[in-house]
Amino acid sequence: KMATDKYDSVNMDPDMDLLSDEELEREAEGFKEQGNAFYIKKDYAEAFNYYTKAIDMCPKNASYYGNRAATLMMLCRYREALEDSQQAVRLDNTFMKGHLREGKCHLSLGNAMLDPDNSQAQQELKNAESILEYERMAEIGFEKRDFRMVVFCMDRALEPASACHRFKILKAECLALLGRYPEAQSVASDILRMDSTNADALYVRGLCLYYEDCIDKAVQFFVQALRMAPDHDKARLACRNAKALKAKKEEGNKAFKEGNFEAAYDLYSEALTIDPNNIKTNAKLYCNRATVGSKLKKLEQAIEDCTKAIKLDETYIKAYLRRAQCYMDTEQYEEAVRDYEKVYQTEKTKEHKHLLKNAQLELKKSKRKDYYKVLGVEKNATEDEIKKAYRKRALLHHPDRHSGASPEVQKEEEKKFKEVGEAFSVLSDPKKKSRYDSGQDLEDDGMNMGGQYPGNPWSGRFQG
To answer: Taking every annotated instance into account, which residue ranges of this chain make up the domain J (predicted)?
Structure first.
């Protein structure tokens, strides 16, 4: 009883303490053999348990730590495996497997640290050198904003260093900057499942949301990252940009709704300078500014802004529609048809079909003589306005008025006079005008009146 009390006072198992060193070693070897059996079966969790029991029996046996390190590596628990490998080497510096496993753990964790004098670690040394080279190339690529190069380098570096969070984070950040958000989110989420407090992963997760124009959710992740790492400069900058971008965009929207188009134009322009990397939000800002530009009759500028929006986001239907309308307003019908065709191929709605047909009709009409232009009137001109315009143009181009001009000028004026007659014969006849406006062909209607219109008050005015 006294002996039991003694052992209980130090929380030890009295039966274990009564075993001899030889018996302890024998029992530890039994646990090791069981661990080996489970390891061969690839049941690494059970192998880990039995190697741990062997270590508890004989905590100064280097091979037990080496075996448990190998098991931990199979479980991708490289930091713990590194600790076991280092303990094995501390207990027995000649334990070569311990040195090799330590090197592999360093490589897997992205630490290119190996002993160059160790002949059995030459392959690991080559891997370490390649990792350092890929790191160097990635650093140069990031500075040049060649994010594809960085992703390539990190993929190569992660082949030997599969557990290195630093490499994974850099790859994820560049995937986000390339607009490959699902891939970037997947990498960041994998890290957060293992370490929910990883500030870098939280930052990348927020960056993806930010670039997908989910600014409120993005700010939450940036704030969380800063809570984990108050000196995280990238998270702080991204958080500041996100808040500024949201505020400026909302100011622009407010000004637009209030009809203050000049202010809205300026506010959207300011918002576009905040973060050139935010492709999706900037595409919306360009389209918004194009809408304002069309209100201000800056149609060419509006077309340019829509083109910039589409360059950032080729799937942005609203930008195609806005640009197509601007093309229609500037009578660039072929370009309008092209944009409406793109929209209709993507979204086959009745509205888009109607817009496309209307653009095709205007294109067809634009290839004929524009009788409204010939008379110098708007398309919604009244009957009286058409008559007045006709009389004015008929006087201006009547052949008798140019009888003293050169043959070339006479010929040109005669041609214009005939066109004036054609235009009036069509636009003054309600049926012909209706057919003309609807885009129908009028070649068989005898439009060419030779400059004369039945009942034309100007016929013969200049004769005699």
So the answer is: 370-440
